[in-house]
Amino acid sequence: MKFRRLGLGAVGIGFLGLVPRLAHAQDTAVTQLRPVLVEVARGAHRSPLDLPFAVTVQTPDSQRPGQRHLSLDETLFLIPGLTVSNRTNPSQDPRISIRGFGARSAFGVRGIRILRDGIPLTLPDGQTPVDYLDLESVGRVEVMRGSASSLYGNAGGGVVDLRTSEPPSVPVSGAVRIWNGGFGSQRFVAKASGATGSVGYQANVARTDGDGYRDYSRQRMTNGFARVSADAGSGSYALEWLGVNTPVAENPGALTRAQFDLDPRLADPLSIRKRARKAVTQSQFGATARRAGERGEIEASAYAGTRSLDNPLTFAIVNVGRVTSGASLRAMLPFSLLDIDQRLTIGTEIQRQNDLRENFTNCNNIPPPTVPTATCPDPAVERGTLTLDQREIVSSVGSYLRDELQLGDRYVLTASARADAVRFRVKDRLINAGNPDDSGSRLLDAVSPMVGILARLAPSHSAYANVSSAFETPTATELGNQPSGAAGINRDLKPQKSTTYEVGVKGVGASGLQYNASLFATGVHDELIPFDIPASGGRRYFRNAGRTSRRGAELGLGAVVRALELGASYTYANYRFIDFTVDTAHYAGNRIPGIPRQTLQASAALRTAVATFVTETTIADKMAVNDANSESSPGYAIFNARIVTSGSLGRSGAELTLGAQNLFNTRYVSSVSVNAAGGKFYEPGSQRSVYIGFTLLAALKSNR
């Protein structure tokens, strides 16, 4: 599809700036700049107007009510520079990328850090499973874009911090929500929250069932979240838990272009024959403590969790038992030196990931099914011979220093650096005469500096520039998947390193228009690129490209015009290979696959006395699907709409939501599997789905 529709979108964005009298945006605006103070900057409680890099803050449910909290593409809508590819595959997490970081992900999230209330969900090797992430109680989203996020260490190409909403000021409140929709989708949610004195609490549990848009994409999942917080004078403390139990999540795989054109609801026949799917149980506990005063602030956190994964794939059955833990300590000290006010932040954090990984031969549908073989001695049993048995231990230590210098009334100079060491260790447990010991270790380290300058153009307007660097290691799985078929650690695969130059402006206009805009250029050395080997059965491998270039522009806008709230984000991404040769193929000048060149998202919420009407639009350019750029997924335009109406009686209330996803039933590709073998590049997005939601709410009398 030609991208001409974006021209119309750009006209619409320009119109926002011409509205003569916009009402002042309150805490439902697209990007909160004032008086919101963000945590994600690791400078503690800073306005986005004081930070010399791109940062976005949203209150998603407030701006776009009626969300079902099923996937991160709902929660992370309208953030420039950030792309969420919903793979319509319950066995695969959505693919999240920020300025191209994370676009290579075959499963889970790569290249960016995901946090929940400041506690990392991202593992020390840089991967993030988000299937256990609960979205029901998320009240605010903070996003840092680009390698200025390197203060978070490995995979710091961007940071997404999901913050829990504040509990209501009543001792007890509760809600029950029921959703029903197309393709057998059902969701039941129960919530409880409240506050007494300085102690607040929140808890919720959700059960989700669905047959899925595509064939062979059934899911059964129960997930939950609980948080208890307390304020005591100058200190605040919190304990929280999140977890999931998914006994069934089928994997329909990706399609060829011919299969997609024939019927996008099809599943890959190999995935069905091999019964590709996953079953996962995960639980994580975390604790945070913070004390603040005139002399500074100190914050500490710790977490621990477990994960159990049974994952039959087309090439093997993977079984993983995981234990994770981590802790961090950060201190901020304000002081003055030579009549220059400064804010010095120093911190350190440690993480550990201990995986027991076993691979078995997948004996599903091995012909002839009744004849034993060497690798499938009992064809009636799914698991055949054990092909891999090893313990993988990843540990990381990172320390950082950040200083802000107030230069007069208008300028702030920020400089920071972080040093990281990530150690990968493999302990081979499958050693015999035909299988040597593949144990080993590898240390990957880096120092990532950043310097930025911010100028206050006016009390509510800022301009900034920065130069920053970041690094990203291969994950434990990526280091273990060697094209040679050997076990152990791939010693040829290098971490990728990037340097970014960025300028931008942001602010709040007198009429209430809020904006943030940025231009950036990123050079990446040894970019990690996925590829398949035709005989591998769908297993993903990785190699380094020589050099790549990413040049982009981002624009976010928001405004409130009386009862109408508007939001828009536009991303231009010109990402190309500069130096990349595979065998005799030269890819210099080609586009980096998996990323649309242009994306426009927009929303409108009209609030009336009867109901709130919400519309959302995503228009995306075509995407190259392989390094050779020989094929591309078509561009698309998707429209969603819903009506939310509510009523109350005393301290109780009810809410009814009626909506439609992909209102005009567009056939489109929502995600691609980069460099997949056999032309299986395309992951179809869902066509039209109508849904209804009903909520009952109740609360006791306020105690404040």
Detailed description of the structure:
There is one protein chain. This protein is mainly beta and 704 residues long. The protein has a 22-stranded antiparallel beta barrel. The longest helix has 14 residues. The radius of gyration is 25 Å and the shape is globular.
Could you provide a short overview of the structure?
With 704 residues, this protein is mainly beta.
Keywords:
mainly beta; about 55% strand; single chain; about 700 residues; 22-stranded antiparallel β-barrel; globular
What is the radius of gyration computed over CA atoms, rounded to a whole number of angstroms? Answer: 25 Å
Count of extended strands: 39
Strand content: over 45%
Helices, by number, come to 6
Global structural class: mainly beta
List the helices and strands and how they pair.
Elements: H1 5-18, E1 55-58, H2 60-63, H3 72-75, E2 82-85, E3 95-98, E4 109-110, E5 113-116, E6 119-120, E7 127-128, E8 138-145, E9 158-164, E10 173-181, E11 185-196, E12 199-210, E13 219-232, E14 235-250, H4 257-262, H5 269-273, E15 277-293, E16 296-312, E17 317-337, E18 340-362, E19 383-407, E20 411-428, E21 440-458, E22 461-472, H6 476-480, E23 496-508, E24 514-525, E25 528-532, E26 540-544, E27 547-561, E28 564-579, E29 581-582, E30 585-586, E31 598-607, E32 612-620, E33 623-624, E34 632-633, E35 636-649, E36 652-661, E37 669-672, E38 682-684, E39 689-699
Parallel strand pairs: 5-9
Antiparallel strand pairs: 1-8, 2-3, 4-7, 5-6, 8-9, 10-11, 10-39, 11-12, 12-13, 13-14, 14-15, 15-16, 16-17, 17-18, 18-19, 19-20, 20-21, 21-22, 22-23, 23-24, 24-27, 25-26, 27-28, 28-31, 29-30, 31-32, 32-35, 33-34, 35-36, 36-39, 37-38
